Amino acid sequence: MSRVVFAGLAATALVIGFNPLKQHLNTLTNYPPASGWILVGAFALAVAAAFATPLQVALSFAWNCFFKPLGKSANQQGRLDQFYQGQAEIYDKTRNSLLRGRTTMLKLSAAHLREQRKQDPSKRLVWLDIGGGTAVYVLDLCAPLLEVSRKRFEARGWKNVHCLLQDATTFVLPEWSEEGVDPEGALDFVTMSYSLSMMPNMLALVDRVDRFLSPSGLLSVCDFYVSAREKTSLSEIIGDVASRHCSWLTRLFWLHWFEFDHVDLHPSRRQYLEHTFATIKSFNGRNNFVLPWVIRIPYYVNLMTSRRADTSRATRAYEIDAGNTISVTASPLLVPARQSQLDLPALNLGLSSLSRAPSYRKLHRSNSRESDSTRIDIAPDEQLSSFHYGKRQFRVPYLDSPVHKEFRSWIYGFTWEDPHVDMQHLGLTSEDSVLCITSAGDNALHCKFGLRELDSRRGNSDSLLTTDSIAGAPGEQPKRIHAVDMNPCQGHLLELKLASICALDYEDHWLLFGEGKHPNFRELLDTKLSPFLTSHAYQFWRKNDQAFASCFYLRGYSGWALRLAKFAIAFGGISKEVKAFCNAPTLAEQSAIWESKLRPVLLSKWITKLFLANPAFLWNALGVPSNQAQVFLSETTTEQFAIDTLDPVAYGTHVKTGAYHYQVCLEQKYTRESCPEYLTREGFEFLKANNVAKLDCFRLHTDSIINVMKRLGKHSLTVAVIMDLQDWFRNSLSDSTETVMSNPCDLTLTIRALHHALAPGGRVFWRSAGLKPWYTALYEREGFRVECIHEREIGSKVPIDRVNMYGSFYKAVKL
């Protein structure tokens, strides 16, 4: 009857409002005038029939949630029954847009459980869903919602799913009553989807889950929240402090709004949850409900595990392998009965990070008997970070720092140095420990290949590049690679590449970083990549999940350089010629296209003045600071520097078969013939072999190079590759001897840190925009022997490597 009434009202409204439509229909047809009303009426009935059910659902939802009196009830079960009695059947239809994050939570959980199951495929998992409403055990205190679940399971014929009408704070599974069954640690997977905030005695529930969750079990929670007024050390350990924070208006409004429905969003609830369990993944989002960007309810998704989980592997990776030897002593456990089961190593974030961590008062648990009997009370600022509970320990723990806010994105989406030339001179062996700048991670990954790269595929017989005498043995790989970068986004990028090698097949890997776009990146992120990413990296890529929607290499700061190059090429009308240049079958044909078509445009006066001589463009697009610009401007002009860079590349290297740095610049993607080694099928399979054991050597540091070397300790490194880092420092040669001794410049401190961390005979490699950089004298003064490996002569047409961007390549040996 309600549908008929709605249809009649809709038809009446349409008759009144659609008189112009009727007149227009009459003019288009030869039917009598009354037929226009008939057509309008038929259209109105069709619209009414199409929208009647959705409108009914919306009205029912609005009535039950916002207007219907809850009445008086003595307990939580009565309130839940009254609240959901009239909307149990439409619960799922109305919650998809309101309760965001549930699908993400389940996808992340499935991905982590899938990786976990690889260790013991035969193990039977026990899943408890608390507040499932609409396993496997589905536990709820609301009978109407539980009845909907029961009907669905019966319709699907699922015999291993059981619906339990119980109070979550005292839940007991049926099988626990069997003789010989120990409920302690019996749960492998527990989920709570928008139910934790509805639990009056939340503390007792969290304690009970903590008691019965397996040490290797997974707890997944999705719920609304409001943040605390002040940041806590726990949030810094978990990461994503900025998006976690809520404005005062958001905190005030949603906290009190949800109180009307007996939903408690007080920040202490989430803090206590994260205090009790170790966070593996965390994501903070905003629910754009009904009116996007107006009604934005904060929600979170947390994947957690027991603090009894074995973290010995992570402790070794961070303390011994990564040099985090400064630790914090954990608080003594308050329950001697459980102390023997726990061996919690210290946080070990390093002095530079710990000095930024604010003090944090201990959370107090419930006074209930259940809570006291199972509590584990460890001060939050002494707990292990989310890094310790990941599947792989690539990323060394760090805390969000104010300096990290200066980096909104990655600067380099690809690496500018030629690793092939590096490998000829590094002389890597299996006993080497290498420190390098993270950048985009391409060259750090290349260190794993040593000299196995195939010159027949990389070069061209008529290339002007010369191959120097090779040090080291083909196939030798360093035992440790420390990648260092202050920009956390560069670390996130290298993490994603490592995760891609671990989790994806070659074609997906190629689409991401070869083509630079993938139609299902968000799905890959949640279902495959997430177990191999830290919480910090997952949060970053979740927020930037559009990075691979069209062209990854046009994003980030380096993407602006490629965008401007693309504009200049289009403006100059040479787009077809650029494509022909990149696909020229021989070096001679490539050189001819450069000489006649590309060179007059790309090396024109207006390009040089508008872009290459512009300090803002040099820094924001190319990552060249003013100090580095002064290094080469003291020897040549901007115009001549550009000529000396591009002419030798065009005349002496073959883009189609190896000079992939310019391939990605000109076409914003790689090709199968011209790409970094980790993107070739052979390279991918080499790194993926033996359960990606070759990648275990990576340690990614988010800190200054000085802090990292201090933590690594004396004689801990044998090779350091620091790119063009030293060009960024000011020229301090004019400093007096007294100043050098009492207040040395930052570069002097860096060189001294290198000298301390390198073993005798250790080597430092760097590139410089200048031919004779001023700081070589500092190395000699601090106990190094310096030699120039390559020097790019002004006006020469012979490249020193496939990039040829730098004026010189140097090596310093510790005496």
Automatic annotation (TrEMBL):
Record SUPFAM superfamilies: S-adenosyl-L-methionine-dependent methyltransferases
Keyword Membrane: yes
Keywords attached to this entry: Membrane, Transmembrane, Transmembrane helix
Protein name: Methyltransferase domain-containing protein
One Pfam family, short name: Methyltransf_23
Record InterPro entries: DUF3419, SAM-dependent_MTases_sf
Presence of keyword Manganese: no
Lineage start: Eukaryota, Fungi, Dikarya, Basidiomycota, Pucciniomycotina
Membrane-traversing stretches: 36-63
Organism: Leucosporidium scottii
